[in-house]
Specification:
Order of helices and strands of chain A: HHHHEEEEHEH
CATH architecture of the largest domain in chain A: Orthogonal Bundle
Distance between the termini of chain A: 33 Å
CATH class of the largest domain in chain A: Mainly Alpha
Number of helices of chain A: 6
CATH topology of the largest domain in chain A: Arc Repressor Mutant, subunit A
Largest sheet of chain A: 3 strands, mixed
Oligomer: homodimer
DNA sequence: GCTTTTATGCTGCAATGCAACAAAAATATT
DNA sequence: AATATTTTTGTTGCATTGCAGCATAAAAGC
């Protein structure tokens, strides 16, 4: 459970390494939790790991179709569900799209997504204090928070240049 | 621009009043901005104001169909777009649904939505400091935030009883 | 080996959302 | 007022997202 720094993926980072790490991490998680990272699940994860852009379910299908028999939508949705349940993939609600988690944060920690509207890349920041204070504000109204979605759209450092 | 308190709508509040206020406010806003609150736009807003639950576009259609000729989806989407552009309606991303703004906050202020997963009601809290600190965290990574989506799912005070 | 659980495949369809063009209504212009 | 222009609404059609329900295959447990 490495705690990476809260950064936006730079365009020149070693992405092969980054993706390989994520796969290794996924294997680790599944082994620990006695879950099965089947070929399809792995393939879906790899498709998402091919970039730091969230992919729609049908984009995932298209990517998989290049390598194997085109999977039915439901197949991909099921794999995505599995991956999300195990904290390996996030759903970006404001885009109806899915993002491989490059962060290795523990399941409990709350993350915020930074979505660059120019290049489409998404960074995660571990937003502990801020979401904590949001949750507190909610609790003060008697509301019992369970799950937070924080998605910030804007322009990433690289695209501002 | 009344600044209401950050609360979850109680089940026993005077909803007729609450909805009437919102309509009056909408008229005011449109007058100020030289925008036209046409019959359809008003009807869509009224449909959303019938509850504090976000409605899907097709739920809005169903509601309107009870009163007038069933509008085509695109008609409702256009009205929703107009209402959102003028800050009268919010889109709840995690639900693909739309919520009449009962808040009268100014356009700039950032709000977080509290979504009760039991009764489906949604409250708004003006989440200034917290989202501010989120935005700051984002900026620290070089990201220029523009628009924030904060949606917190949980259980409202009333439903915990 | 057989049963039970888990995962995948297949067919079909519901829900969401919008593009492109046509008609109508409101506004502006001379 | 008549015409031109802009804004809004209507119509048709379709793309995208998402999943239900049942059948089959593979893996795990006894």
């Amino acid at each position: 459970m490495t705690m990476t720094r809260p950064v936006f993926p730079t365009p020149d980072h070693d992405h092969g390494r980054c993706a390989a790490d994520a796969i290794a991490h996924a294997e680790q998680v599944c082994r620990n939790r006695a879950q099965k990272l089947t070929p399809i699940r792995r393939a879906v994860l790899e498709a998402l790991l091919s970039s730091h852009r969230p992919l729609g379910a049908y984009e995932v299908i298209d990517q998989l179709a290049a390598e194997r028999a085109r999977p039915a939508p439901i197949t991909v949705y099921r794999a995505l569900e599995f991956l999300m349940a195990n904290g390996l993939v996030h759903r970006i609600e404001s885009r109806n799209a899915y993002l491989a988690c490059a962060h290795h944060h523990d399941a409990a920690s709350m993350v915020a997504f930074l979505i660059c509207e120019r290049c489409g890349s998404v960074g995660e920041i571990v937003a502990g204090p801020a979401t904590q204070s949001l949750n507190d504000a909610a609790r003060r109204t008697g509301f019992a928070p369970k799950l937070s979605v924080v998605e910030i759209t804007g322009t990433c450092a690289h695209c501002q240049a």
